[in-house]
Write a structure and sequence with these properties.
Length: 250
Amino acid sequence: MKEFLSKFFKKDGKEVSKGGSEIYRYDEPEDHGWRPPENYCQYTEEVCTHFDQIFPDRQTSVFHEIISDLIHIDVHIMRPTAEEDFYVIYTTGMSDMPMTVPEDMPSAQDYSRAELVMFLPGTWDVDNVLKMEGEIPNKDFWAISGIKFFARFPHDFNTWLGSGHTIPNGPDYEPIVQGSEMGGVVLLELGEKESPVVARDGTKITLLMVVPISQAETEYKLEYGMDALLEKFDECGVPHVLDIYRKSVV
């Protein structure tokens, strides 16, 4: 998968779209060399317990990160059940460090830590991914590589990710998977019953769902705002279980 946020992005002050979204632009992060994680799995147990409670009776596997720079990101894979035929995958480790939330943002501390989640169809070939034998097709591995990239993104770029943020796949919105119209993602916080996770020390950890979107959908959101895009999703019945090959609603 082409690396998200190519070199053309540069963070240089506030820019606001017609729809009211702040636009951030970035260069590639400065090369600091290898940095061992200072905190290791600080909230992993509490995040995993939370997911076990809201998605009970699921078998879980873990895609472990072998070598970690700055933070240690694992991807937990909860298998489908007879009642809910979809996978739940989520990160741990992203919340080990606070994100760089704007100081003037109300209750900034409450949004400084997050973990990411995706819902994938029951037909996903997860066993092929977990074996890690030979070359894994991007159609199977994109979700793992993508969710790990976004979990590292705010720490690598000294920024933050929150609900409603959209990120294109490079300047040309290249397809995340060959044959797909999806050329970027939008982040959406889970419902009030699911998010945030409140740790024992009182820290709040926002759970953000990663949803692939098309170039047209991204530009529509920037033009008319996040609520307008969500209305389009509702009108067209876009499900929470991801279909990387779905048609753009715009």
